[in-house]
């Protein structure tokens, strides 16, 4: 694993704030030459610390107003079942986050969709191919903080 120093940390913080910065602007913000900045970014990418850049999209501006946290419990824990389940869930584009968790549930999904009718279609699709013990849905009423930067 790559040793991250204070300059790498500053680069990562700036990129988390705004990944659209030009390399020149990024270098200026962290006090590096453009070449030194490029070398560090390449090293961070080669090590897998940086794996692409994305844009944050305002979901509500696109009519994606419903956020649902779906808690799943299963009786199946074989590698074969798990692979089938993972493959199936990853075909559902409305699932934006997918975690295997500890505690009372086995998996947590974050689903983003337009409305309750759209979520019901996601739900029907979720349960159509794999057996689940229970599915519990929690509907977000307000996003207080979403997509926050990692604490570096």
Describe the structure using short key phrases.
alpha+beta; elongated; 152 residues; 4-stranded antiparallel beta sheet
Task: Give the structure's gist in a few sentences.
The protein is an alpha+beta fold and 152 residues long. It has helices at 6-17, 23-30, 34-46, 79-89, 116-127; strands spanning 66-73, 95-100, 107-113, 134-139.
| Helix content bin | 25-40%
What would you report as the Rg, rounded to the nearest angstrom?
20 Å
Low-confidence stretches: none
Q: What share of residues are in beta strands?
A: 15-25%
Number of helices: 5
What is the number of strand segments? 4
Q: Structural class given helices, strands, pairing?
A: alpha+beta
Terminal Cα span = 16 Å
Secondary-structure element order, as H and E? Answer: HHHEHEEHE
Q: How are strands sequenced across the largest beta sheet?
A: 2-3-1-4
Shape assignment: elongated
Q: How would you characterize the largest beta sheet? A: 4 strands, antiparallel
Overall residue-averaged pLDDT value: 96
Description:
It is a single chain. This protein has a 4-stranded antiparallel beta sheet with strand order 2-3-1-4. 37% of the residues lie in helices and 18% in strands. The chain has 5 helices and 4 strands. Helix 1 packs across helix 2 and helix 2 crosses helix 3. By secondary structure, the protein is of the alpha+beta class.
């Amino acid at each position: 694993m790559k040793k991250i120093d204070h300059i790498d940390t500053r680069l990562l913080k700036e990129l988390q704030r705004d990944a659209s910065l030009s390399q020149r602007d990024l270098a200026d913000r962290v006090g590096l030459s453009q070449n030194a900045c490029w070398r560090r970014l390449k090293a961070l990418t080669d090590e897998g610390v940086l794996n692409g850049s994305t844009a944050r999209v305002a979901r509500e501006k696109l009519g994606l107003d419903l956020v649902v946290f779906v808690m799943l419990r299963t009786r199946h824990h074989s590698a074969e079942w798990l692979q089938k389940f993972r493959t199936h869930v990853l075909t559902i584009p409305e699932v934006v986050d997918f975690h295997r968790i500890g505690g009372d549930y086995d998996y947590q999904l974050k689903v983003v969709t337009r409305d309750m009718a759209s979520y019901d279609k996601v739900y029907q699709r979720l349960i159509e191919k794999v057996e689940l013990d229970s599915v519990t849905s929690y509907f977000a009423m307000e996003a207080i903080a979403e997509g926050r930067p990692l604490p570096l």
